[in-house]
Amino acid sequence: MESILVSGGAGYIGSHTVRTLAEQGYRPIVLDSLVTGHRQSVSLDVPFYHGDIADSDLVRKIVEIEQVSAVIHFAARSLVGESVEKPDLYFEENTAKTNRFVSALLQSGVKRLIFSSTAATYGIPDEVPIPESAPTNPINPYGLSKLMIEQSFAWLEKAYGLKWIALRYFNAAGAALDGSLGEDHIPETHLIPLVLKTALGQREAISVFGTDYSTPDGTCLRDYIHVLDLANAHILALEGLATGVGSGVYNVGTGSGYSVKEVIETARFVTGRPIPVLESPRRPGDPDKLVAKVEKIQTLLGWTPEHSSIEQILQSAWAWHLKHPNGYL
Ligand SMILES: NC(=O)c1ccc[n+]([C@@H]2O[C@H](COP(=O)([O-])OP(=O)(O)OC[C@H]3O[C@@H](n4cnc5c(N)ncnc54)[C@H](O)[C@@H]3O)[C@@H](O)[C@H]2O)c1
Ligand SMILES: O=c1ccn([C@@H]2O[C@H](COP(=O)(O)OP(=O)(O)O[C@H]3O[C@H](CO)[C@H](O)[C@H](O)[C@H]3O)[C@@H](O)[C@H]2O)c(=O)[nH]1
């Protein structure tokens, strides 16, 4: 059984990936500082190290004790607004700490790595759907912190033979189909959990940020990808690297966009509850459309989304919210 170290394995996407790895016959090992993650989101059967990715001694120890052969690296800060207020925090926590983490891994002989990147590396795209070859002009420190990591990998590959895949996720959403794992960010800023908290009556209304975008209904279009499909993309990426797929960046999305209004309308249908809307000003830094071009991951890694219709995303997220109205508390 191959042992895979998952940094940030107690976070939203990490916890779903840890479970999927175990289901597919891998042995996941989690390293997480719990700065934003939840211990309860990881099964007690999974080896769990409470620590920081920048603790090189700990990383080397884990690799040796657990016989780690590859790494999936989720650990990061990911609040766009916070990154604008505290760019130094993002360059330290994401870029600098990842550099230390990858150095320790390479020193320990681990050369296969899958990295959580983001559509925020593109900034405001000229072309939608966005191909991986599009220019990268991030418009916030969060996106830049991730782009710098991607770029560093090419040099680490040349110097030390690192094999890497950076998955540029579009909008991660949804939950385990039985609602047993889900999204519990504090503070929550993402549209879908906020819409469902409104359906639960925990919020009075959902603010729609901007109704004058150049989209069919005036609200922003996003490419929502189910967290289980994302989890699977990581495993295919690991297997791809092991069987000779080259290093590089891959978009992970569905290729279809839904507007904020369409998401809210579908959530009304799925939950059967009223969801009051408050039309609000634009949120700074939101591009009107972010939709992935997905041929590369489909062709080279054989990945196709299976749970990512907007109905399936909302149904699974609703199951999670009904079972865990206060998150993992
Ligand atoms: N959620 C999205 O829509 C989305 C979109 C694009 C990219 N991403 C990226 O995916 C990854 C996971 O996102 P998420 O939504 O699951 O976030 P999350 O905050 O739920 O998970 C991040 C996990 O990393 C841990 N962590 C953070 N810094 C750490 C450190 N220095 N050492 C050890 N552990 C640390 C946290 O405790 C948490 O468990 C992040 O890298 C994020 O930037 C997320
Ligand atoms: O209360 C809300 C919250 C969001 N939105 C809108 O809903 C859409 C989706 O917003 P999210 O905050 O859910 O997601 P983002 O598209 O802003 O962010 C995602 O995409 C980014 C890339 O731009 C990063 O990768 C980030 O990590 C990831 O969560 C946006 O148009 C946003 O303006 C609202 O109208 N009301």
From TrEMBL:
Top-level taxon of origin: Bacteria
InterPro entries xref list: Epimerase_deHydtase, NAD(P)-bd_dom_sf, UDP_G4E
EC number, as in UniProt: 5.1.3.2
Cofactor(s) it depends on: NAD(+)
GO molecular function: UDP-glucose 4-epimerase activity
GO biological process, one term: galactose catabolic process via UDP-galactose, Leloir pathway
Reaction equations catalysed: UDP-alpha-D-glucose = UDP-alpha-D-galactose
Uppermost EC category: isomerase
Pathway this chain belongs to: Carbohydrate metabolism; galactose metabolism
Domain NAD-dependent epimerase/dehydratase: 4-253
The entry's keywords: Carbohydrate metabolism, Galactose metabolism, Isomerase, NAD
Similarity comment: family membership: Belongs to the NAD(P)-dependent epimerase/dehydratase family.
PANTHER family named among the record's database cross-references: UDP-ARABINOSE 4-EPIMERASE 1, UDP-GLUCOSE 4-EPIMERASE
Protein name: UDP-glucose 4-epimerase
Native organism taxonomy: Bacteria, Bacillati, Bacillota, Clostridia, Eubacteriales
